[in-house]
Every structure is written in C-alpha cells, then in structure tokens.
Amino acid sequence: MNSIHGLSRTATAHAQREVRKLVDELTGVTAAVVATADGFDVASACVSDADPARVAAMGSSIVAIGDVVSQEARLGRRESVMVLTDSGFAVFHSVHRRDTDLVINVLARDSAVPAMVAYRAAQLARTLAEV
Which residue intervals define the domain Roadblock/LAMTOR2 in the entry (predicted)? Predict the structure, then answer.
C-alpha cells in the first residue's frame, strides 16, 4: 500500500475531494486542511492566502492543548476545538482512524455559521474515519 504520512492514496484523494467540497459549499470558509496529528498537511483547499502547512502545524498545537484541557478536567476524549475571534473562527476536529489520527482544520470569516462549519467538519471526520 502506498501512503502519504500514513494515509493511503485512496484516503488522501478522498480527503482532497471532500475539503474542496466543504470550501465550495460553505459561505465564509476560507480554508480547509486535513492534517496528521503531528502537523503535516495531507489535503487542502484554500480561497485565501492561508498556507496549508502552517494551518496544519497550528492545528496540531491547538488540539494538543485541547487534549490537556479535556484530560485535566476529566471531560473524556477531545473531539473538537473552536477558536472564536473578532473577525472569524477556526474549527479543529479529530479523525480517529486505525492507521493514523488526523485533524480537520477549517478557517472561516465571521460571515460563516459556526454551527454549520462544526457540523460539516464532524461529518467529514466520520467519512474520513471510514475510508
């Protein structure tokens, strides 16, 4: 099996199609990046000047902090983290797979609907977990 960062080529191609679809379908989303848990980008779609490699690295750090918070507070396994700002937000959602853990990173302007972006990130996580 050929793989990219522990993910099969089939799963990588699926991830690429799905992040493009997410960016195209959701108003206000400027970037979607699927990355490994250690911060390497696997698939991305951007309509802004976001650098997928930087987004992937940032997402890795954010979810690591989320892990510590969820463990210390005894809240169970972290699934997602949302960062709200004065001009937009970012959603980081975990994908738990047998072969490798992934993180979906979505950046959006304040014109996007946070609940819809979070829902679509979770939906994408479920499909990537099954591919």
Answer: 16-108
